[in-house]
Specification:
The chain is 22% helix and 37% strand. The chain has 134 residues and is α+β, with helices and mostly antiparallel strands. The protein has one domain: 4-Layer Sandwich (S-adenosylmethionine decarboxylase).
Length: 134
């Protein structure tokens, strides 16, 4: 099976703990981080949106639509917590590089990182399959 006949999907996501509150509340800085993360991942930026929320939990969300899929950061400054989600399709992009770049720029004291292969064939995927009887 050739590379052209499958979807190569790579999904890296995680949680960042004990980040600087000022960094997590800085919408412009987070936008710049996401734009640069797309470049680092070899992804093509299509659009960038961000929202700053007020209220008890507050925070910032930044979402980049890339040709290959998306990059998202959601923050809760009061809790010094953020989530990061990077999903790309195609063999030439690398979501792990983008994730690592974001971690470097948000500087958590510790974080979790998860990887899911979301390819269209079992030749690339290592997940368990469940056959549904109809």
């Amino acid at each position: 099976m050739s590379e052209d006949s499958v979807v190569v999907g790579k999904h890296v996501y995680g949680n960042l703990y004990e980040c600087d509150e000022a960094v997590l509340d800085d919408e412009e800085y987070l936008r710049k981080v996401v734009v640069e993360a797309a470049k680092v991942a070899n992804a093509t930026l299509v659009d960038l949106k961000s929202w700053k929320f007020s209220g008890e939990k507050g925070g910032v969300s930044v979402l980049a639509l890339v040709v290959e899929s998306h990059i998202a950061i959601h923050t809760w400054p009061r809790y010094r917590y953020a989530t990061v989600d990077v999903y790309t399709c195609g063999a030439r992009s690398d979501p792990e590089k983008a994730f690592n770049y974001i971690v470097e720029k948000l500087r958590p004291k510790y974080y979790t990182k998860h990887y899911v292969d979301r390819s269209s064939t079992s030749l690339h995927a290592s997940a368990q399959y469940t056959l549904l009887n109809k």
